[in-house]
Amino acid sequence: MNRLISLLRLPTREKTLFAEAVAFLFYAKLLLFVLPFKDCIKQFKILPPVSVPVDLNEAQVIGRAISRANKLAFWKNRCLVSSFAARLMLSRRNIASVLYLGLRFENDTQLKMNAHAWLMVGELLVTPKGSDGYKEIFRF
After folding, report:
1. The Microcin J25-processing protein McjB C-terminal domain covers which part of the protein (predicted)?
2. CA within 20 to 30 Å of 103's CA: 14, 71, 127, 140, which one?
């Protein structure tokens, strides 16, 4: 209940971004559930890195909206869903970003591994990178 009250107290722009984040989280979850991964990544338009300064404040606000929506969504979102949703929101605003996929092996053995996804705009983490130790295996 407290989360809902704090959501209602947000400025209108942040409420709008929250609603957009919920919609994109659901879309990303559905996309990953229905399509093979190689077809999912075709949904993203690749924006070339530009030399003009990027609005990092906008990227930070989108990251907060994704985080809020994750807390209030009734379905479970993993890092890949959050990163996809944030990437879609940023590309709507023509903000170039890089989505990273990484692996980490548990206890220095090859038997158990964890995968993680995170999104960056320049040096800003839009979705959390998580703990150290993830080795980047793919980026787009």
Report:
1. 47-138
2. 71
Residue 116 lies in a domain: yes
| 23-66 pLDDT per residue, tens | 999 999 999 999 998 888 887 766 666 555 677 899 999 999 99
User: Which domain, by its residues, includes 49?
Assistant: 10-139
At 78, is the pLDDT very low, low, confident or very high (cuts 50, 70, 90)? confident
Q: Establish if 1 belongs to a structural domain.
A: no
Residue 47's alpha-carbon distances to 9, 37, 60, 80, in angstroms, are 35, 20, 18, 19
pTM reported for the whole predicted model: 0.85
The answer to whether residue 2 is domain-embedded is: no
Counting other chains too, the contacts that 7-12 makes at CB distance below 8 Å and 24 or more residues apart are 7/68, 7/72
Rounded Cα–Cα distance for residues 82 and 88 (Å): 10
